[in-house]
Design goal:
By secondary structure, the chain is an alpha+beta fold. The protein has two helices and three strands. Helix content is about 20%, strand content about 15%. Bound molecules: zinc ion.
Length: about 90
């Protein structure tokens, strides 16, 4: 299954680095929060489907950024954390 095709309306797909904990490439950005009233997702984070590790949570409203940017930010944080050295 191609992860990119599971996202609807996704204009910019950032490549996710493998999980820094288990090395799995089964990682993806997830929305976090409620969306039952038409409001955007309140936060995003990257989740590893193999070891269930979670990346940093990006709260969209805290940053005053659109949901799409919040998702990308969560991916960038995950990728930064996955770097082998600093
Ligand atoms: Zn993992």
């Amino acid at each position: 299954m191609n992860i990119a095709t599971t996202w609807k309306g996704c204009s910019t797909m950032i490549d996710l680095k493998p999980c820094p904990f288990c090395g799995s490439s089964h990682v993806y950005s997830r929305p976090y929060g409620e969306r039952g009233d038409g409001k955007p997702w309140s936060a995003y984070y990257v989740h590893c489907d193999n070891c269930a590790s979670d990346g940093p949570l990006v709260k969209v409203y805290d940053f005053g950024i659109p949901p799409e940017a919040g998702r990308n930010a969560s991916i960038n944080l995950w990728n930064g954390r996955a770097e082998p050295n600093d």
